[in-house]
Write a structure and sequence with these properties.
The complex is a heterodimer of chains A (65) and B (404). Chain A has 2 helices and 4 strands; from the N terminus they run βαββαβ. Chain A has helices spanning 15-19, 42-54; strands at 2-5, 24-26, 33-35, 60-63. By secondary structure, chain B is of the alpha+beta class. Chain B starts with 7 loop residues before the first strand and ends in an 8-residue tail after the last strand. Chains A and B meet through helix 1 and helix 2 of A and helix 2 and helix 14 of B.
């Protein structure tokens, strides 16, 4: 799995950090998304996908390669 | 493209079904995913009631949040149609890139992590209020003694607004959300609230303290912008969470098995709060204006059309949530639209979550036998407000006295 985030699209709602805190965080300054682990372990993948689905600004991309 | 016939609504349905105060107006279900809606000024707009369609509209930049492009679906007395443009700083009614500039100044202050750091302070405030209720004894109005003061004290501390002035701005904020307020009342509330915050902003500039408003004085916002940002944040923090705590408690008291889940299972609290938000959808409408022709669910939304979104109907869409009219705290309610969707999704949502996740179980644990002190049909509902809820919620606990 490969996760990428578009910080220009991000609006800092925090849905990703709420849903999959092991995979996503928000920076202190602007509250925008930071990807902690672009290739999450298998047990975290379902929640990483859920976070991408919930993102209000479609700022997350998940590829299953 | 052949479009299926679309239902016609001559007015926005607002009446809740008799005896079912938690359910959206019944007419809405038959209109999913969308209907033509004639707005009060005669404009032929649209009402979106399906979950997928509402999500699509809220996140599509071809639909604008600028008030000057919209015909009000729930107009107030004396309001022109279309509405005037929002003043600079009232960024909920603006589009990117203007919106982005304001939002980016604030997002760092409302992150998941920062709001979790507030948990301990929220717990203290909650504890003081359940303690005071216990000390005073029941019955009491839960809205006045619990649901309203807790979020108000928290947002005041965060923004740096003196909580001692709460009565004043609580009244103004209620007038803004009251669809029956007169033009004079609205004008007076707006002027007084604006004047109060203008004084406060001036004070923060000359003597900054450790809070969001003081920090914003270091940004490039003008005093006028700052006052409007403050009004937006304070207004958003007051009436919303308060109504979720009040109405949420009423819903739990009406579903004792679900109340027991919230009270007794710490693992179920986080998901249970999401489900209460889905089920109750207190901010029941939002609206946008189409900037160009946009295809939606096989229909063309014409450029210039006002599109009202029924959050309540979308959150009860059976295509998205199984058995949607059932309150089930253990269901996966993530993806509800109660905080909105798209670039305007609620800025304070992580704060609201901390408040609800703390306040609801704490109340039920302190008063395990909490009950309504009046018959459920006598609980006054906020039927006239943009934000649904209870006007008052008389509750009691402890040994039942004779005759009550």
């Amino acid at each position: 799995m490969r996760i990428s985030a578009d910080r220009d699209r991000c609006i800092g709602a925090g849905m990703c950090a709420l849903t999959a805190p092991e995979v996503f965080d928000q920076d202190e300054e602007e509250g925008l998304v930071r990807v902690l682990g672009p290739d999450p372990s298998p047990d975290l993948r379902a929640r990483a996908r859920e976070a991408a689905r919930l993102c209000p600004s479609s700022a997350l991309a998940v590829s299953e390669e | 493209m052949t479009a299926a016939p679309v239902p016609e609504l001559s007015e926005l349905p607002l009446a809740r079904p008799a005896g079912r105060p938690f359910d959206p107006p019944e007419e809405l279900a038959a209109t999913r995913p969308l209907a033509r809606l004639t707005l009060p000024d005669g404009h032929r707009g649209w009402l979106v009631t399906g979950h997928r369609a509402a999500r699509a509209v809220a996140s599509d930049p071809r639909f604008s949040s600028r008030t000057e492009l919209q015909r009000p679906a729930m107009p107030r007395a004396g309001m022109p149609s279309p509405l005037p443009a929002a003043p600079p700083g009232l960024f909920i009614n603006s589009d990117p890139p203007e919106h982005t500039r304001y939002r980016r100044l604030l997002t760092g202050r409302f992150t998941v992590r920062r709001m979790r750091l507030l948990t301990e302070r929220v717990e203290e405030i909650v504890d003081e209020h359940v303690g005071a209720m216990e000390h005073a004894g029941g019955p009491t109005d839960l809205v006045a003694s619990y649901a309203q003061p807790i979020p108000a004290l928290v947002i005041c501390e965060l923004l740096g607004v003196p909580a001692t002035d709460r009565a004043l701005f609580q009244r103004h904020s209620e007038a803004f959300n009251d669809t029956a307020a007169s033009a004079e009342e609205l004008e007076a509330a707006g002027r007084e609230f604006h004047g109060y915050l203008a004084e406060l902003v001036k004070a923060k500039r000359s003597a900054p303290t450790d809070d969001v408003l003081s920090d914003l004085t270091a940004s490039d916002l003008t005093d006028g912008e700052l006052v409007n940002v403050a009004m937006l944040l304070l207004g958003a923090g007051l009436d919303t969470t308060a109504n979720m705590i009040g109405l949420g408690t009423f819903a739990l008291l009406s579903h004792p098995d679900q109340l027991a889940v919230m009270r007794d299972d710490p693992e179920a609290v986080d998901g249970g709060v999401e489900e209460l938000m889905r089920y109750l959808s207190i901010a029941h409408t939002g609206q946008r204006a189409a900037l160009e022709d946009v295809e939606l669910e096989g229909h063309v939304i014409e450029k210039g059309a006002t599109v009202a979104l029924s959050v309540a109907a979308a959150n009860r869409d059976p295509e998205r949530f199984d058995d949607p009219d059932r309150l089930d705290l253990r269901r996966r309610a993530g993806g509800h639209l109660s905080f909105g969707h798209g670039v305007h999704q609620c800025l304070g949502q992580q704060l609201a979550r901390v408040e609800m996740r703390t306040a609801l179980p704490a109340l039920l644990q302190r008063f395990p036998d909490l009950r309504l002190a009046v018959p459920p049909e006598e609980v006054p509902m906020r039927d006239r407000s943009d934000i649904y809820g209870v006007e008052r919620l008389p509750v009691a606990w402890g040994p039942q006295e004779a005759g009550r």
